[in-house]
Amino acid sequence: MKNKHWYDYLWIVSLSYLILGFFNILFAWLGLLCFFIPLIIAVTQGSKGYCNRYCGRGQLFGLLGGRFGLSRKQDIPAWMRSKWFRYGFLIFFFVMFFQMLWNTYLVFAGASDLKQVVTLLWTFKLPWQWAYHGTLFHPGVAQFAFGFYSVMLTSTVLGLVTMVLFKPRSWCVYCPMGTMTQLICKVKNGSKDPSCPTANKV
Amino acid sequence: MTPNKRTPRKAEVAQDQCVACGCCVKVCPLGAISVFRGIQAVVNREKCVGCGKCAAECPASVIRIREVTA
Questions:
Q1: Which of A47, A52, A185, A196 best probes binding to B when mutated, by most B CB atoms within 10 angstroms?
Q2: Is residue B1 in a domain?
Q3: Interface pTM (ipTM) of the complex?
Q4: Which chain B residues are Cβ-neighbours of A62 within 8 angstroms?
Q5: Given an 8 Å threshold on Cβ–Cβ distance, is B38 in contact with A2?
Q6: Of A76, A123, A187, B58, which residue is least crowded by CB atoms under 10 Å?
């Protein structure tokens, strides 16, 4: 088999991130790395290097569904890999994300109070006050952390469900970051011909 | 030509449906598949022996193993 690289262990980082959110919600801010790194790689390099190499979440699903056998390894339904579903999910994700940012803004502006809840699947409000011990910063900083951790936990839960039902890394099919970075790469490299053998190495 | 030579098999990606996640690249024992500029996976047909590991791994199930004549 091929040699393992340091980046093949980034699933440990993803797992730690999820666990840390149970102890101190402010760690949720670190999740922004999973948003900015893929976008920076896509914009500067025009590649999906993040998905292809560094995505710890994908590795985690691959490990749980693959080595631990927690996946049925069935084909994902055709509609879930269709463009309208992938782009639709991206738009839905964006709308929910901006709503979260709006809630954060309201706390920053003093228009509403900090809510110490993690919202799972955009619906279920889980009490999460044990992970909040006050902050030196504005309560809005904590509100963003609760909101962002909600996004991360929700996508993990969705990913786990589709991991069990379909292939281990089914999440990758409709992952909003994956769809977005692929879209950026298409815009950036769109006209190039994939059948050209010398252009295949990126 | 040897009498019991089998038809060669190659992986084939439905490129318009590929999500370019790179799961196939990770499992290919021959390094015969790569993600082309973050858009889609591309098979190097000279290296591919049609083992099917990529097809089994592909989360979108858009890789098929086909017999190639010619």
A1: A52
A2: no
A3: 0.87
A4: 23
A5: no
A6: A123
In a domain, B59, yes or no: yes
Q: How confident is the model at residue A2 (pLDDT cuts 50, 70, 90)?
A: low
Q: What distance in Å separates the CA atoms of residue B17 and residue B63, rounded to the nearest whole number?
A: 10
Residue to test with chain B: of A81, A82, A181, most B Cβ within 10 A: A81
Residue A120: pLDDT band (50, 70, 90) is very high
φ and ψ at B13, to 5 degrees?
A: -100, 130
Enclosing domain of residue B35: 9-67
CA distance A119 to chain B (A): 27
What are the angstrom distances between the C-alpha of A41 and each of A123, B11, B16, B33? 32, 28, 22, 21
pLDDT, chain B, mean: 91
- Answer yes or no: do A81 and B58 touch at CB < 8 A: no
Provide, rounded to the nearest whole percent, the portion of chain A with pLDDT above 70.
Answer: 93
How crowded is the C-beta side of A52, counted as CA atoms within 13 Å? 23
Partners of A178 on chain B (C-beta within 8 Å) are: 19-21
CA distance A176 to B46: 34
Give the model's pLDDT for residue A172: 96
pTM of the entire predicted model: 0.89
